[in-house]
Design a protein that fits this description.
By secondary structure, the chain is an alpha+beta fold. Strand 6 and strand 7 form a beta hairpin.
Length: 176
Amino acid sequence: MRKWFLIWLLFSFSAISWSRTPTDTLHISDEYSLGLIIPDTVASRIVEINRLLSFAEQHLGTPYRYGGKKPGGFDCSGFVMYCFSRTQNMLLSPSATTYFKHGIKVHPNSARPGDIICFTGSNSRNRSIGHVGIVTEVTPTDIYFIHAAVHGGIRYDALSTNYYKTRFLQIQRVIF
């Protein structure tokens, strides 16, 4: 399902183009030499997000390990940090509590695969970040993510489950 969404996203954005009036006289070669041609960042972003998600998926079932930052065992921030450093060459925090400092906060309605989803820790009344994961799929009714869970290790979950719905804090975008 995630792959179909990303294919749809690629085609939707490729339909967007810069328009010119009939009186414009610049040619493609002129635009290139003037630096007006913008590389297809949407397509390259989709490739990078797919690489991130495929890499993360390869670790499904890896056991949870408190403080774990390697494939032998991960905690939540260690898993997110490892995936982004290996696929995006980004150095993110080894601590979930500081993930609000990375990228920009986006509204859940604007979430997309590759974003970082942030939750409270086990105490839902403490409204600071204590758990993070990577958004894998966004549907009209739910947000799915991959993360390192204390029970189950690296696995997929949905924001709509009661446990995560009550602990949800924010979504951070780090791939632009």
